[in-house]
Specification:
Strand content of chain B: 25-35%
CATH class of chain B: Alpha Beta
Number of strands of chain B: 3
Distance between the termini of chain A: 11 Å
Structural class of chain A: alpha/beta
Number of helices of chain A: 6
Order of helices and strands of chain A: EHEEHHEHEEEEHEEEH
CATH superfamily of chain A: Class I glutamine amidotransferase (GATase) domain
Helix content of chain B: 25-40%
Strand order of the largest sheet of chain B: 2-1-3
Structural class of chain B: alpha+beta
Largest interface: A-B, 20 and 11 residues
CATH topology of chain A: Rossmann fold
Radius of gyration of chain A: 16 Å
Number of helices of chain B: 2
Radius of gyration of chain B: 16 Å
CATH superfamily of chain B: Phosphoribosylformylglycinamidine synthase subunit PurS
Number of domains of chain B: 1
Largest sheet of chain A: 9 strands, mixed
Number of domains of chain A: 1
Order of helices and strands of chain B: EHEHE
CATH topology of chain B: Mth169, Chain: A
Largest sheet of chain B: 3 strands, antiparallel
Helix content of chain A: 10-25%
Strand order of the largest sheet of chain A: 2-1-3-4-11-10-9-6-7
Shape of chain B: elongated
Oligomer: heterodimer
Distance between the termini of chain B: 7 Å
Shape of chain A: globular
Strand content of chain A: 25-35%
CATH architecture of chain B: 2-Layer Sandwich
Chain lengths: ~220, ~80
Amino acid sequence: MKAAVIVFPGSNCDRDLAVAFREAGMEVSMVWHKETGLPAGTDIVGIPGGFSFGDYLRCGAIAARSPICRAVVAHTERGGYALGICNGFQVLSETGVLPGALMRNAGIRFICRTEALRVATADSDFTAGYEAGQEVRIPIAHHDGNYTADAETLARLAGEDRVAFRYADNPNGSADDIAGVLSANRRVLGMMPHPERACDAALGNTDGAAMFRALAGVMAPA
Amino acid sequence: MKARVHVMLKDGVLDPQGEAVRHALGALGFDGVNGVRQGKVIELDLAEGTDEARIGEMCEKLLANTVIESYRVEIV
């Protein structure tokens, strides 16, 4: 159970994500964006939040074309796991690994607060530790989290049960209240809220820990 | 040679920034502004004779996110 956390210039949740993986029992390595390959035996790639490359051009656009992202895309094409949080979700959408795009929040403002989410499906290795319909409280901190996709894509995501989380009270204008989406093989999750910031009782909220525990369970050697 | 790439949100994609600008214009007393769409202009300084198809590829691969944006290339 090896996790690789990608670090871009401007990433700022990379160490928090590494701690969350490690606390769940995974072995974690940090991988700089100029690397062209992932460490051997990587089971899951974590793409952290932050402001990679200063959000120049579009959020996640430059990071998505970095050398390491070619390796990340190849990893997902082989059926490898990936978790993109906040800027990491923007990066995964820019690579095309996940459908849709994240636009400026409908209310224009940067929003930093804890939001109630509904677990939309428990049918994934990311969400298997929750009950479908369960409400969890997870922090958000973003300016560009307004999920957008064409009607056909939204219908497909709903029809294939690929919406992982929905906002209980949509803060940013996201289509269909979407806070996180899964890939077709359910092994890639992109979400704007930060489960890694809700994993330690000392921080007052452990609602995110079940995701990392469930992942670690799946990847534990038989 | 130089090329100017105009990137705009596609029709039908709500532009929250354009909307905010429209409201601000109204607050300044500019009536009759029915809509504002905000985009970006990217100027490319290119080797002479660069193929226009090549510029199109740059737009598709990086300069525009064609999920939400359209682009137009102008050779100047």
